């Protein structure tokens, strides 16, 4: 699930409803990643509150310790980098995420070159994020506007590739 902002209460409700992970946009600072991590994980790894009366905990059927271990291990933390201003070093910024998602269109807009994905400053920032992700052992994600672009991204070791959105798929189906 993609949330609009870091809201621990909303994140907890979405996870309790069964979300496999959360994508947080506008990540710029290490303190955001730390707060995001705390909202996603149960103690001792984070500060998320617990209830067993919910779908993700199988309504208390699963032993508490097993559920906490599974939730802390399996939930996907996706941080979206999409702005000019990012705390350096990037490797430190993204450490603790499972995926760093490059919000490339927003990045072009924020860097003053709307839609120009090949602009040298955009390409440089993308490479910086890729290198930081590899060094931090964090998977890389991006939006691909076509299946061929998705294949290129997969060949470049991207492992989280969005091909469309729910509205994009609906609009495309409607046009067809």
Task: Tag the structure with descriptive keywords.
five-stranded parallel beta sheet, TIM Barrel, 176 residues, alpha/beta, 8 helices
Descriptive overview:
- By secondary structure, the protein is an alpha/beta fold.
- It has a single domain, classed as TIM Barrel (Alpha-Beta Barrel), CATH 3.20.20.60.
- The protein is 45% helix and 14% strand.
- Strand 2, helix 4 and strand 3 form a beta-alpha-beta unit.
- The longest helix has 17 residues.
- The radius of gyration is 17 Å and the shape is globular.
Put the structure in a nutshell:
The protein is α/β, with parallel strands linked by helices and 176 residues long. The protein has a single domain, classed as Phosphoenolpyruvate-binding domains (TIM Barrel).
Distance between the termini: 27 Å
Instruction: Please tell me how large the radius of gyration is.
Output: 17 Å
State the shape: globular
Structural class: alpha/beta
Number of domains: 1
Q: List the total number of helices.
A: 8
* Main beta sheet strand tally, sense and closure: 5 strands, parallel
How many beta-strand elements? 5
Strand order in the largest sheet: 1-2-3-4-5
- Strand % is 5-15%
CATH architecture: Alpha-Beta Barrel
Supply the CATH superfamily name: Phosphoenolpyruvate-binding domains
CATH topology term: TIM Barrel
- The first-level CATH class is given as Alpha Beta
Task: Give the helices and strands, then pairings.
Blueprint lengths: L7 H9 L4 E4 L5 H11 L23 H11 L1 E6 L8 H5 L4 E4 L1 H7 L9 H17 L2 E5 L3 H9 L2 E5 L3 H10 L1
Parallel strand pairs: 1-2, 2-3, 3-4, 4-5
């Amino acid at each position: 699930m993609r949330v609009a902002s870091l809201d621990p209460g909303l994140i907890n409700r979405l996870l309790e409803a069964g979300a496999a992970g959360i994508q947080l946009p506008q990540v710029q600072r290490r303190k955001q990643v730390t707060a995001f991590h705390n909202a996603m994980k149960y103690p001792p790894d984070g500060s998320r509150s617990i209830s067993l009366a919910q779908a993700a905990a199988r309504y208390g059927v699963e032993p508490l310790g097993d559920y906490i271990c599974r939730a802390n291990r399996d939930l996907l933390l996706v941080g979206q980098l999409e702005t000019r201003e990012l705390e350096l070093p990037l490797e430190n910024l993204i450490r603790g995420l499972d995926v760093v998602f490059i919000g490339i269109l927003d990045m072009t807009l924020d860097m003053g070159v709307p839609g120009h994905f090949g602009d040298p400053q955009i390409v440089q920032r993308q490479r910086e994020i890729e290198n930081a992700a590899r060094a931090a052992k964090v998977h890389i994600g991006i939006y691909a506007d076509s299946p061929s672009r998705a294949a290129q991204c997969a060949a470049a070791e991207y492992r989280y590739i969005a091909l469309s959105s729910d509205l994009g798929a609906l609009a495309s189906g409607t046009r067809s």
